[in-house]
Amino acid sequence: MSDTIQQKVTMATIAQLAGVTQPTVSRAFNHPEMLQPETLERIMQAVNQTGYVPNMVARSLASSRTRLLAAIVPMLSNVVYSSFLKPFTARMREAGYQTMLFESGFSLQEEERLVEMAIARRPDGILLTGATHSETCRRHLRSAAIPVAEVWDLADDPIDLCVGFSHDESARHAARYLIGKGHRRFAVISANDERAYRRREAFSQTLAAAGLELPRRVDLPSSASIGQGKAAFGALLESGFDQGAIFCSSDIIAHGVLIEAARRGVDVPGRIAVMGFGDQDFAAEIMPPLTSVQIDRQRLGEEAARLLLARIEGREATPARIDIGFGIIARDTA
Fold it and tell me: CB-based burial of residue 318 (10 Å sphere; 0-12 exposed, 13-18 middle, 19+ buried)?
């Protein structure tokens, strides 16, 4: 045999080295609690000695479980999404599941393609961001009969499980807060995101109901960034919006607004008040500290994992629809 080609290590190899039967080796991987500690130790020593990796495909065919999950988010680099993915994947990893991560880029068509790709790999469960999907995507998910958790929104007709909050009500609450602070002129800066647009409309409707003028609107051409926030604030000033309150669809945009305001010598909150959305970690640390709408992303990830895990393992997932709510963290900008 060539020096560079090694004999394939199989379960039979491990059984021979450990002095046990192949079914005993199988139990060591699937139900280790059924073995005597000394037997399990001999098997694990043989595994470590040979570098053997169990055939997960064969195990999944036998058990109808792949121990894989699929999670689709708009942007992996955005802390809003990564901060609920972290507790979600940690909890599922503790339960023996690994998570495949996919990035949709806020595109329903891309999400549809990724869902098809994920279903083809037969994951045990799927996590989706938001409650708005193409009809084809919803049809694929329902016909696959795979547990699904929709997060970061509240669906009236969820595919399966849902953990989120009302974007409309959070924006209405933000508007009422700013009106209560005495503001009568408003602007809204929104990233290119369906949920951000819904918040913008709910914010505007609340102003109209209070007999106030509709807000100035700046709709960004892409996802949120500090640079986009700076440019949007400059555009508002040039349009004549020189006093009032600005509601931003994310803390990142609000941070850009604050940077540009400081550069131009605009007093915040004396002349311009600023409110963000998401209450990211940096919101309390920047100067001035940012007022923001807070979402408990840790709880969101944990609840999604709890419900999805229950559904996968055949236990009752209750309640199937969880509203985690929101709150306004008042700081120095509004």
Answer: exposed
Give the tens place of pLDDT for each residue, 233-282: 999 999 999 999 999 999 999 999 999 999 999 999 999 999 999 999 99
**Residue among 255, 194, 258 nearest 223 (CA):** 194
pTM comes to: 0.81
Spatial contact of 300 and 130, defined as CB atoms under 8 Å apart: no
Residue 204 has which token pair?
Answer: 């505007």
Instruction: Kindly state the percentage of the chain with pLDDT values over 70.
Output: 95
21 CB neighbour count, 10 Å cutoff: 12
The 10s digit of each residue's pLDDT in 279-301 is: 999 999 999 999 999 999 999 99
Tokens of 151: 């997060």
Distance CA 53, CA 26 (A): 12
Query: What Å distances lie between residue 214 and 209, 237, 259, CA to CA?
Result: 10, 17, 25
Task: Please state, in angstroms and rounded to a whole number, the distance separating the CA atoms of residues 18 and 295.
Answer: 52
The three state secondary structure string of the chain is CCCCCCCCCCHHHHHHHHCCCHHHHHHHHHCHHHCCHHHHHHHHHHHHHHCCCCCHHHHHHHHCCCCEEEEEECCCCCHHHHHHHHHHHHHHHHCCCEEEEEECCCCHHHHHHHHHHHHHCCCCEEEEECCCCCHHHHHHHHHHCCCEEEECCCCCCCCCEEEECCHHHHHHHHHHHHHHCCCCCEEEEECCCHHHHHHHHHHHHHHHHCCCCCCEEEECCCCCCHHHHHHHHHHHHHCCCCCEEEEECCHHHHHHHHHHHHHHCCCCCCCEEEEEEECCHHHHCCCCCCEEEECCHHHHHHHHHHHHHHHHCCCCCCCCEEECCCEEECCCCC
